[in-house]
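Study this protein:
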Amino acid sequence: MFTRAEETIDEKGFSNFKKAVISMLLGLAGFFGAYFSLNFSAGDFSLSIVWSTFIPLLAAMAYGEKFGLVAGTLGLGAFFPFFIWTNNGWACLLSSLGYLQFFVWHGYFAVRRSKFSGPWFDSLVIQLPSVLFYGAIIYLLYPPCFLYNPPFWAPDAQTFMPPQTVSSIALKSPLIMCMVTILSAFVLRISEVRLLFGLPVKKCSRGNGPVFMATVSSSLASWLLMLVFDDIFIGKDSPGFFPLINSPFEIISFVIIMSAG
């Protein structure tokens, strides 16, 4: 039913120790990158586009579920909610566990994808149960989590989150997870990245690096051009600069354009 696929997990590459170290570093990079998330206010809460989750996801997609677990735990890649959403209390634990299952899920199927081919093993397909599960637990379990606030580590945590905010997070988070999956899958096709991770490189992928840079540059230029036209033709009362991370519309347009690119 399935045929042998191009290797994604290279069992003859780096040692497990080296993979673990790389995974921890990727997790830490994702953790600290979360402090530079794109945020906008929703009352007493902050809705964030945590772009940096693609970094620990690289460990899972490159080396498998064990190293996705390392990136998410020892590398702290799944624990950023406790530090950037400090007033969510117990809901941070739910978010962290949700991101951890996201990393492990992708890692598990990355190993299977290295052995078998088929549309059901594609990263964009296998992510759907994971991201839908995350959205569901946010929608169903966030309200009870807030009822049990505050926990011992966050005495000032909120005890209620408006239903519309919960719904926004439950919808937004799976979409962002899908976007970071696309980004991680694309980054792992760059030959320089694969060499850095000790993964095999095919001749046909050696030009992916310049293509990636050109794609990112053109997408960024398109977004900036959109802001210029918006400022000239629509934002007549604007002070003459672009509040790049203050408007949710500009943030969302940035994510959509970069993902489409």
